[in-house]
Amino acid sequence: MTTPFRLLSLPCAPLKRVIQCFDLRELVACSVLSKRMNVASRGAGFRYDFFVELNGNFLRVYRYMDNTFFFNLDDRINYLVVQNPRHREQARWSKLGLSTGEWLYRILHVTNYQQFQLYIGDAPTIDVNCRLLFSALSEIKSVSVITLQNETNTFVQKVIDVILPKTSTFFIQTHHMSKKELQKMLIQNLVSLEIYCDGLRFQLDDLLMTNAT
């Protein structure tokens, strides 16, 4: 039989140990209870890296074989779906008045993320403000972008335009890239830039204009 206790009444070291027993779903859930709980959850020292997938009107945030968070990019839909693939469980959470962008920030921030891999599929059928979606994200150590379509749509370019200034290491794998899109990436102040693109012709003039080391 377990005895209930006040979690935030614990000293720092025992509180950290208790929170370190949480799984990802429990960690994120506790972080939205209060500002103190958010600080305590982030201070537990988790360090996760994530896959983020934008496909159609949906955003998915997940780790391999761990809890997955599904969002509808239409913020009028006031719930998200959380799945646990190991136990085949699914729960519906209220968004608690937070936007999808604020939820994305909360999940990544509370786990002290350093990098994430972003997959971009079909463009959404609704108007999505990419700058607002990613506005809460601060400096990201490394971002990998992989496009799943044969043509780079305007939505992909909008996402890249918002993400690029926030990172120092950028990797992109895509099926198509225009000269203008290439030059826009080359002038960014990046430590590292990797581009994999079918048929992309890289010339000396492109090399001379790059700021990446």
What does this structure look like?
The protein is an alpha/beta fold and 213 residues long. It has two domains: 9-45; 47-209, no CATH class. The protein has eight helices and nine strands. It is elongated, with a radius of gyration of 19 Å. It starts with 11 loop residues before the first helix and ends with a helix.
A few lines on this structure:
With 213 residues, this protein is of the alpha/beta class. The chain has eight helices and nine strands.
Defining key terms:
elongated; alpha/beta; F-box domain-containing protein; 30% helix; F-box_Sdz-33; 8 helices; F-box_dom; Zygotic_Embryogenesis-Asso; 2 domains
What structural class should be given to the helix and strand makeup? alpha/beta
N-end to C-end Cα span: 59 Å
SSE ordering:
HHHEEEEEHEHEHEHEH
User: What is the helix content?
Assistant: 25-40%
Strand residues, percent: 25-35%
Low-confidence stretches: none
Radius of gyration: 19 Å
Number of strands: 9
- DSSP helical segment count: 8
Quote the average pLDDT.
86
Write down the overall geometry. Answer: elongated
Sheet with the most strands? Answer: 9 strands, mixed
Can you tell me the number of structural domains? Answer: 2
Trace the largest sheet across and list its strands: 5-4-3-2-1-6-7-8-9
* Multimeric organization: single chain
